[in-house]
Amino acid sequence: MVRMVAIGDEGKTHMDILRSIAQGVISLRTDNHSVPLWQEVHLEDIVFAVSPFVGATVAHSYALHVKNSVGDIVDMILQCLEALAFIHSIGIAHRDTDKSNFLVQWHPESLATMRVPLSRPRVYLNDFEHAFKHSPGTTSTSVTIPGPYLRPIAPEMRSGEPYEPFKPDVWQLVNGFSDFQSTIPAIEDVLEAMTEPEASKRPSAAEARDQLAKVINSMLPETLLIAPIVTTFD
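^ Protein kinase domain-containing protein, sequence as received from the core. Prediction below:
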């Protein structure tokens, strides 16, 4: 995949973030889900990023034509949270965590085979054009909203007051799955907590990751080999 990332100063932050997390030793960390940056191509003041092509998107994880089980989908959500927990730990807020910006190697479609997969596809975090790198120890951010911007945003971003910079990523991620129901109360409880309007009561990405992992690890894989309830389809 060859993608134009920057023209002059426009896109510079995006490119700087890719350089800091998507190449070198840090890109090999198992909890780093950013799409690798293989090479940069420069044409005058234009910078292109060369990356591996990941053909599927998490946005289609429960579309009509995809036969993913609850286990397949929840594993993707867990990896999305792990991806956010990692970038937050190094001060990066993504600010566009809709499920369409998470890519998956393939869709397991366990409902088609009615077997628990022997291996799970890896989820990658993509599209850092709205992302921002915060200074160490940052506890709040400005009231600016990245634009042009048409995504739903967390309540605190509409408040007009400074807000904790990373919690909106959690709210926006789970908001993208608002039309998905696992039918498993313990899983639904974790997802519902991520929609908490008051940011101080909302779990961080790392906390939500650990809570969801605890629920999943307490269950037999076969119990997740069920169809989700979906209220709308993309």
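The longest strand covers residues 2-7.
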